[in-house]
Specification:
Its main location: membrane. There is one protein chain. Strands 1-2 form a two-stranded antiparallel sheet. The protein contains 11 helices and 2 strands. The chain is globular and about 60 Å long. It is mainly alpha-helical. α1 (8-33) runs parallel beside α5 (142-164). Helices cover 73% and strands 3% of the residues. It has one domain (5-279).
């Protein structure tokens, strides 16, 4: 146990980081897997929630629900507006979508910097959470421990919503057979717009809750988008469980990697991604060769 003690805190940080990335990446999976939109503005939706949290948080408990509601509503509204702006290119190739959403991300980022300034902003949390607690002989931030619990509940709720509810079934059906969904009297376009709104809401929720971990600043949107894309590439587009496992893996690589191999830490994530993709390709090749 003594040999593992130095890595307990980085491992817990990896869980918190991974769960945060899961909530963000889940929205990205929904927007691409269901709406068919490669949304490179997704990191900006996270930044909206984070900036709202920094703006409204004053260290009191009353600001917490206010920031949550405002951040989620603002990001969901941005996601809905994005759905409207993307309507002309919805049936186009993904490169066109990527270029348009990238341009919107740049514009949105510039607006946020103009509104809140070019510096990283601190986010105040309630005093009861803004203190260390003793955990197996180590000091650990109370907020991060609470965040792990809350994010785990969100992850379970999202999984159940996608796999066990009528809305989740409609979302999955819209991916597999949109014509059949239309025959059932459900407008697939409304499903896609709703999915982009929910995707934005998830990003905004992650931004508010995760602001004390990945705080608002000029580079926040790009950082979150890059890590979310890595999670989606590793976890795939058709599995909530796969996205969760990939997000936790990325979180641990980002935190434990610094503790174990500090000089190689900047390259560990991308080296691991290359190895996993190569292994996946080899597995596909084996299945194809035996088919």
């Amino acid at each position: 146990m003594g040999e593992l003690d130095p890595y307990l805190i980085p491992a817990l940080d990896g869980v918190a980081y991974g769960l945060l990335l899961f909530v963000v990446a889940a929205g990205l999976v929904l927007s691409f897997g269901v709406a068919g939109i490669l949304n490179l503005a997704h990191g900006t939706l996270y930044a909206i929630g984070a900036y709202v949290a920094a703006w409204l948080a004053d260290g009191g408990w009353a600001a917490v629900p206010l920031a949550l509601v405002a951040g989620v509503v603002a990001a969901a509204a941005a996601g809905t507006a994005l759905a409207g702006l993307l309507t002309p290119v919805r049936r186009g190739d993904h490169l066109t979508q990527a270029l348009l959403t990238f341009g919107l991300a740049l514009a949105g980022g510039s607006l946020l910097v103009s509104a809140f300034g070019p510096d990283d902003l601190p986010v105040r949390v309630p005093a009861a959470l803004d203190r260390p607690i003793d955990l197996a002989g180590h000091s650990y931030a109370a907020y991060r421990l609470v965040f792990i619990v809350v994010a785990a509940v969100i992850a379970v709720g999202l999984y159940l919503a996608v796999t066990r509810t009528r809305a989740g079934m409609l979302v999955r059906a819209a991916v597999d057979d949109p014509q059949m969904v239309a025959c059932l009297g459900v407008n697939p376009t409304r499903v896609r717009v709703g999915v982009l709104a929910v995707s934005g809401a998830l990003a905004g929720l992650a931004g508010v809750l995760g602001a004390p971990i990945i705080g608002p600043g000029p580079t926040t949107a790009a950082t979150v988008l890059l890590l979310s894309l890595v999670v989606v590439v590793l976890g795939g587009l058709n599995s909530v469980g796969g996205t969760l496992l990939a997000a936790l893996a990325v979180g641990e690589i980002q935190t434990l990697g610094v503790a174990l191999l500090p000089t190689a830490a900047p390259f560990l994530l991308y080296a691991a991604m290359a190895l996993i993709l190569a292994a996946r390709a080899q597995g596909l090749l084996r299945r194809w060769s035996t088919a």
